[in-house]
Amino acid sequence: MSSVKKILLGEQGLVVIFAVAFVIVSLTVPNFLTERNMIGLLQSVVTIGIVACTMMFCLASRDFDLSVGSTVAFCGMIAVMASNVTGSIILGLLAALICGAIVGLVNGLLIAKVRINALIATLATMQIVRGLALIASDGRAVGINDPNFYQLALSTFLGIPTPIWIMVILFLLFGFVLNRTIFGKNTLAIGGNPEASRLAGVNVATMRIWIFTLQGFICAIAGILLSSRITSGQPNAAIGLELLVISACVLGGVSLAGGRASMSGVIVGVLIMGIAQNVMNLLNIPAFYQYLVLGSILLIAVTLDNIRSAAAGRRRG
């Protein structure tokens, strides 16, 4: 029994569980291990993977962001609309990145300065930003005028689509930031004990503002790539993304109580979510039943987080 707990609690154990599940799925699900399906699987998790890079920092600092889905859709809309109006893809991308950062900044200010609970603050901005996307587009998809915009998602390097490379680069970048920089160490310190971090000289409010601003900026990148892949700006895109991202992070060992996170764990969590959806699609499982499976994965993730937190508390005691 103790060995089973170790597997569930340890980061290496998570990788082992993922590897075993991957082998089982490869042997039992037809067409799963084909090159085409593997590329499609990675493409399907690009949005979740990119947003999870910074959601990891929000969760590790004892916060979370429910507005990420709305921000992704809104920034994708802005990228398309600004590109169409100005005739410049570059200006469209810059407008989207700036808007994403502003949404994140507003979240950070509401939470760190106005001291509104993160749940309420990001729930409010989730509704407001989704409303802005619907108002700006009159509730309809906005087509892309310049076909070059599609190349953001369609272009490849070494046979692998560019969005996958961008996701991998962000995984490496934020893994380095978490483990090798003062920013990452302060994030974990704040999550572990905000008051002790403040007494140690960490500006907790400023750190939280930066984390949420970064979250909004990264959501803009995800929104740009998503709008390019679906060939339009969709005001109703990425609905429910926040739950998938949080599930992936918690599955990967990021603690909802703060103070614990690893990029390798998040990557495994993202892949688990992607494989679950991919397998269900290959087996032609109806979408209604897929909701049940994804909800169950979220419950499992939270249960594992509770077990890890209890075990960590016993070790500290």
Automatic annotation (TrEMBL):
Q: Tell me if Oxidoreductase is a UniProt keyword of this record.
A: no
Cross-referenced InterPro entries, in alphabetical order? ABC_transp_permease
TM ranges = 12-33, 39-59, 66-83, 89-111, 118-137, 149-178, 199-225, 237-258, 265-283, 289-307
Its record classes its membrane topology as: Multi-pass membrane protein
GO CC field: plasma membrane
**Annotated localization:** Cell membrane
Record keywords, A-Z: Cell membrane, Membrane, Transmembrane, Transmembrane helix
Coiled-coil regions in this chain?
none
Molecular function terms, GO-annotated: transmembrane transporter activity
Instruction: Please give the name of this protein.
Output: L-arabinose ABC transporter permease AraH
| Source organism of the structure | Rhizobium jaguaris
